[in-house]
Amino acid sequence: MVIHALLAASLAMTSLPATTVEAKINCARVKCLALTFDDGPGATTPTLLKTLKKAGAKATFFVVGKRVEERPKIVAQAMAQGHAIGNHTYSHASLPTLLDDEILEELKTTQDAIQTATGQQPKIFRPPYGHTDDRVLGLAGETELAQVLWTGTTLDWQLRDAKKIKAAVLRLAQRDGVILMHDTVPATVQAMPGIVKELKKRGYHLVTVATLLNGKGPKSGVSYF
Question: Most buried of 38, 97, 137, 206 (most Cβ within 10 A)?
């Protein structure tokens, strides 16, 4: 427990500069875009983190609880670099098919896993497959979570081709947009240097979901995008 406490304190101190820098971005005045990555952490996530760090870009990672337990250091690294961490359930289940207690268990177990890895609990979650309803949203609110969906999805898990994924991102990019990708798809990670370079060339500031909301959220039990 002492080790976890020291790690959490160290990560909190490490992440302050990145968080402070991003907080100066006012998305009401500049063109912002949120890149989001689901289903990790995975074997290719560290490579993605290197790309984002080199570009000075921030992203939001919706992580699966059981994978957080397998790779806690990667989640801690992402947070330390100023990226946002969101809850993507423990087993990647379709939440509307579950009983209330099962939904709460999926969310709370993942909250605990992220807390253990980073010293903090997320304020946002994304339902696997985008499957959700009013009951799911209400239970998320009980867990003090806001729901974050997206404005466009690359379907990268289906494309699995770096050039096609890059083209999809550039097609979907729009001011205040939220793009869904997966850091567990190697072709997506391969495409990211070119994606980030082109988005910046087009004038986009690549920010976390919280920065995109510009102080208007996230609020528990509310669905965004």
Answer: 38
